[in-house]
Amino acid sequence: MSEILNKTEEIVKKAKTLGADEVIAKTTFGKYRQTRFSNNQIDITVAWNDYLTDIALSWKKRVVATQIRDFQNVDGQLKQLFEIAKVSKENPMFGGFAKGKFKYAQSSADKKVVELGNPSEYILEAIEAAKKEAGQDINSGGILFTKFEDVYLASSEGPIGVDSRSAIEISIRAFSQREASGHSVECSSTLNGFNPSRAGLEAGEIAKLARNPKAGDEGVCSVILNPLFAGSMLGMWTSMVSAFNVMIQLSIFVDKLGQKVSPEFVTMKDNPASYSVSNRVFDDEGVPTRENVFIDRGILKTYLHNTSTAKIFKAETTGNAGLVVPNPWNVEMGLGNMGKDEMFRETRNGLYLTNTWYTRFQNYKNGDFSTIPRDGLFLIENGEIKRSLKDVRLSDNALNMLGNIAGISKERKHVHWWGEADPPSLAPYILIENVHITKSK
Amino acid sequence: MEKDIVDYALEYARGKDVEYAEVRAQSQKLEQLMLKNGILEAFLSSVNTGFCVRILADGGIGFASTNKWTKDEAKGVVDLAYRFAKAAKRKDKIRFAEEKAVETTWEVEQKKKIEDVDSETKIKQFLEVDKALTSQTVNVPARVIQAIMQLTEKYFVNTEGSRISSFVPKIAAFGFITVVEQGKSEQAFKQFGYSGGWEAFDEWQMTENLIHDVNVLKEVITKAKAVKPGTMDLVCGPEVTGIAAHESCGHPMEADRILGREMSQAGRSFIYEGSSFWIGTRIGTDVVTIVDDPAIEHSYGYYKYDDEGIKARRRYLYKNGFINEFLHNRETAAKLGIRSNASSRSANYDREAIVRMANTFVLPGKMTKEEIIEDVKNGVYMVSFTEWNIDDKRFNQRYVGREAYLIENGELKHPVARPIIETTTLKFWSAVDAVSKTVEFDAATCGKGDPMQGMSVYTGGPAIRLRGVYVK
């Protein structure tokens, strides 16, 4: 392990010798495994091993970056990178990389996740749970994904660290009929407590309830989002808190620091904690990651920063540096005070939405967008689920929806799904009022 | 790229009890730059190289890849892929459609080689685009320009005797602009893409295109009026025709979706055996023919052989209004008892090749755009779009206009603010009564696969007229 760190530090030293002002090198040795299944059978198992060093350096405020595979041709690539730096243009907004020596939390990564003898057992467990819930005819598909990364980071500005990051996720979509499906996920950083049956059971439950859907209606109503759908919305809101996205106006939060953006009972934070599939103890500048509350009881408190954006906004880095721009890692919505059942009881006229996809914006700055609910979606009348629906679209505004949150559940679930519920989140059920629903005509 | 290691991996795989094995290697020189409001945020330069092994054994598929070029590593990934294939234990065994072995070398010509243009010139030319945007009498407070230049070398071998080497240079650029006038904002995203050399930069007319969008956005803010919702005619410009062809024809015609292989992520299709829609079913009017064609030289989705070594050809997806031919790889083709039509593509050496589009577009008709508009009494001309989406069975879609104009008695009137068509695939293509004679293409990045594989494609078509659709 120290040999890899030594090689990574060596790259930083070489770049400094060539004349770089500041250098960061991050080596990732990653093992990734994925099994895909459909129609209740395994289609393919895929493995990819990555031996990769990301390098970012500055020279007279010119920022250039490269990737080196398996420490091949380090001298040649650094030399070439320098040639590019010399003809590059100054970035006056570059505020340097993070400075100082830091202590990092101990990683709790679990190497067993990539050493699974037969990962298909997990898949069969999930499929069987869906069948048990919704009947033998249920047709399931999905993925089982595992990751184990050893990460070695060295910076000319002081930070040096080693981290291990592990994750295991299963995503299962179960069809009880051609147009009746349920989708669920189970996500964990370790094998301990990972329960694929739970995902299969939930997918089966929703699929069973979704049978014989009727086309939904247009209108304005309350919606209850389950954690998977809520995870998509949390990902949408949180990506807009990245200071970079604010600067390029890919955000509803432009000029809204210190302002009320949601009801007082709404708190959101970014926190790549050890339970998360996005766990990490330092960011790509070597700054220790931490909890960052960005919406505190309804008030927008901060954007997510790297060192450069923090200087521009006269703030401190929040430990969210990617190689070039700051990113959220893992979103947590603060616990509410409603039980899930209470949320349903209090809904006179509304929809229960369990998943969504294809969220697209007309204008990121003002927040107009639409997204397409998929899998089980249900009409709620007088506190009860009345029927299964299909073929509607949620067409609303991201800022208005944040402001119209009317309830948050006491229970939360760790969710991550494809690019739709991403970044990962700790998501509750969310009740939102006055949501616009449209449909094809 | 060390071809001897690739050959070694194939021979090692051949020694196992496999029904089929292939090794696909890729070496990609990549340059990427990002300008934010006229400032070079960063310049990335790297070489991305590695190889993968895909094995079919006992009716199961295993796949493993690495970027470590050693024989030991090659053995390791072959062993892994073989183990995965055997572990699948499928009841119905996967088979690949029979195809002839191919030995060939192909490449895309560059008039002006990307590698001969120095980094300083590349940066300078994109900076000039940004500078031109700020020289307009329009407030453009946020501008992001990204460029990606790729030189991709591939080497493909399989146990049937195929051996294919290729070299594809590709260049892409993206512009994202925000215009603010009178306290209101509008935004536009524009993508450019080309297979070939630096000559793309001149052919794109990127500066003129983005300046056009800047002025359009200003007009939308200052002059556009909301459309009175109702049933009317809609004329779609090539950009809107293209996205509709991609979303509601190309995607639902992917055989892996139809057969359920993508059921949990990208979804299924409204087309499936036993449903109201299958090959031979009417889906549009006689004037609707939509093709997917990888063989358009220098197109963003160009390839001569797909990632299973099958020679590319034009596919007629919807033909004269009827569902005609699905997009296939060898796995899906075998399930339907036919041959692959070369739709297997992978975004990188470490990703499984899956069924993908290339360049999907509506074939032209005989009218001019002006003739199409002349015959509209009350309608909207939607030139381009902002928000769009479609459900995962590819039936319910929505396109929101970015540049759009009211049509009254055959004449274009004032700009219309974000008109929306939200309708089904069947209603959309069944409403088309006229198709113009000029096809235009737009570059796009198609999303599919898990992990996501962004794939270079063209969308396109002529202007088309939809009669009596609901626009709001």
Topology:
The complex is a heterodimer of chains A (441) and B (472).
Chain A: H1 2-18, E1 22-38, E2 41-59, E3 62-69, H2 74-87, H3 120-134, E4 139-155, E5 160-177, E6 180-188, H4 196-209, E7 214-215, E8 219-225, H5 227-239, H6 243-247, E9 268-270, E10 292-296, E11 299-300, H7 307-312, E12 331-333, H8 340-345, E13 349-353, E14 356-363, E15 368-373, E16 377-381, E17 384-390, E18 393-397, H9 398-403, E19 405-417, E20 421-438
Parallel strand pairs in A: 7-17, 8-13, 12-20
Antiparallel strand pairs in A: 1-2, 1-4, 2-3, 4-5, 5-6, 8-20, 9-10, 9-12, 10-11, 13-16, 14-15, 15-18, 16-17, 18-20, 19-20
Chain B: H1 3-14, E1 20-36, E2 39-57, E3 60-66, H2 71-87, E4 103-107, H3 119-134, E5 142-158, E6 163-181, E7 184-195, H4 200-204, H5 206-222, E8 230-236, H6 238-250, H7 255-258, E9 290-292, E10 315-319, E11 322-323, H8 330-335, E12 344-345, E13 354-355, E14 359-362, H9 369-374, E15 378-382, E16 385-390, E17 396-401, E18 404-408, E19 411-415, E20 420-424, H10 425-430, E21 432-435, E22 440-446, E23 455-461, E24 464-471
Parallel strand pairs in B: 4-6, 8-15, 14-23
Antiparallel strand pairs in B: 1-2, 1-5, 2-3, 5-6, 6-7, 8-24, 9-10, 9-14, 10-11, 12-13, 15-18, 16-17, 17-20, 18-19, 21-24, 22-23
Describe the structure.
- The complex is a heterodimer of chains A (441) and B (472).
- Chain A is of the alpha+beta class and 441 residues long.
- Chain A has 2 domains: 2-209, PmbA/TldD fold (2-Layer Sandwich); 214-238 and 249-281 and 291-302 and 328-438, no CATH class.
- Chain A contains 9 helices and 20 strands.
- In chain A, a hairpin with a 2-residue loop joins β16 and β17 (384-390).
- The longest helix of chain A has 17 residues, at 2-18.
- The model of chain A has no long low-confidence stretch (mean pLDDT 96).
- Chain B is α+β, with helices and mostly antiparallel strands.
- Chain B folds into 2 domains: 3-222, PmbA/TldD superfamily (PmbA/TldD fold, 2-Layer Sandwich); 230-471, no CATH class.
- In chain B, the strands form 5 sheets. In chain B, strands 1, 2, 3, 4, 5, 6 and 7 form a 7-stranded mixed beta sheet that branches. A 6-stranded mixed beta sheet of chain B has the order 19-18-15-8-24-21. In chain B, strands 11-10-9-14-23-22 form a 6-stranded mixed beta sheet.
- In chain B, α1 packs parallel to α2 (71-87).
- Chain B is globular and about 70 Å long.
- The N and C termini of chain B lie far apart (55 Å).
- The model of chain B has no long low-confidence stretch (mean pLDDT 97).
- β3 of chain A pairs parallel with β2 (39-57) of chain B, so a sheet runs across the interface.
